[in-house]
Amino acid sequence: MANQIIRFGVIGCGLMGKEFASAAARWCHLTDVDFEPRIVAVCDANPSAAEWFQQHVPSVERTYSEYKELLADPSVEAIYCAVPHNLHAQIYVDIIRAGKHLLGEKPFGIDQDANAVIQQAIDKMPQVIVRCSSEFPFFPGAQQIVQWVNENRFGKIIEVEAGFWHSSDLDSTKPINWKRRIATKIHGRSWHACAPFASAFRQETKKCPFALTKIVNECPDGRGGTAPCETWDNAVLACEVETADQKFPMLLSTKRIAPGHANTWFIRIQGTDFSAEFSTKYPKQIASLPYELGRPQAWHVWDVPNKSAYGTITGGIFEFGFSDSILQMWAAFCDEIVNRSGIRQFFHCATPEEAAGSHLVFTAALASERTGETVTIDWGI
């Protein structure tokens, strides 16, 4: 039986748009799925960006420079949108109102107010599937830790740590871009640090003291002068998580300047019965420590099989990588469009509610930095 085709439009034809095009081209890598994305329209204000899709993606039928024209295209069922954060509220809302399914890039609005506007549009269009891009939890090692959390393997939680680190901004000669200006970005990369705990601990995070670090104060403006770097470089957030029967600390960190790291995403959970950790820096390895009273405490480090949410043609002995996680994320999104709640495996893409939770956490953290006080988060429930 032929796969059900989902006709996609791409708004924002930069790096991540190309990653989606690559994932769609590799769809034969997946086994036992009955759906498939097909990119039929693209939109970018930069003609050369859209031209890349015309040259490399044979399925593209139309290109646009104005996104509303793409939204008016009746042949487009779903949208992948990757635009600067200050454009999220307007464009995401227009996509949702047009009745197109949306996979949008983090952080779903430049700030909490913009995020609330997007959520209001979602509430009015319940038939539209809206999800937030978050590929790292689809690594097999991360999937294994999620499974252990769901199985309550850890006993009483002692501590959780999660983070997303990279080091490209250590180069002070790197020209400034929109990611270092407050008008276009506040805390978008912080979403990656939140993603590991979003489902498990989101509404139990109560208090947030925050440490923000500015390391590079100015950099080249690309025109022979310099420009101020307005956003923070590194952020460390110490949360207190309180559930019905326990309380524990959770350390979240997002770092633009972490020497030696290139998009390292990690999660560590320590518990009285079991501990585990995974990092994309060592994508084949996962570490775990099962504990029995009175028995020796020893970490077990092993190569996690290449076993992902959706089956692939790749043998279990081979390495899993970033492009594989993108493919898995797209499979989960397409699965929801076709099968709604009856998706083929247990792990869905990040939800708008989880993105809203990250805004709550990091808005509280920014308030903590301004006042020097610990901020208690009101989840409104």
Key descriptive features of the protein:
globular, Rossmann fold, 10 helices, 2 domains, 10-stranded mixed beta sheet, Dihydrodipicolinate Reductase, domain 2, alpha/beta, 381 residues, single chain
Give a short account of the largest sheet.
10 strands, mixed
**End-to-end gap:** 46 Å
> Level of helix content?
25-40%
**CATH class (first level) name of the largest domain:** Alpha Beta
CATH superfamily of the largest domain: Dihydrodipicolinate Reductase, domain 2
Order of helices and strands: EHEHEHEHEHEHEHHEEEEEEEEEEHHE
Structural class: alpha/beta
**Overall structural domain count:** 2
Strand content: 25-35%
Question: What does it look like?
Answer:
Helix content is 28%, strand content 26%. The mean pLDDT is 90. The protein is an alpha/beta fold and 381 residues long. The strands form three sheets. Strands 7, 8, 9, 12, 13, 14, 15, 16, 17 and 18 form a ten-stranded mixed beta sheet that branches. Strand 15 (274-279) and strand 16 form a beta hairpin. The protein has helices at residues 15-25, 47-56, 67-71, 88-97, 112-124, 140-150, 190-194, 198-201, 322-339, 352-371; strands at residues 4-11, 35-43, 62-64, 78-81, 101-104, 130-132, 157-165, 205-208, 210-213, 218-220, 226-228, 234-242, 247-255, 264-271, 274-279, 285-290, 300-303, 375-376. The protein folds into two domains: 4-132, Rossmann fold (3-Layer(aba) Sandwich); 139-316 and 352-375, Dihydrodipicolinate Reductase, domain 2 (2-Layer Sandwich), CATH 3.30.360.10.
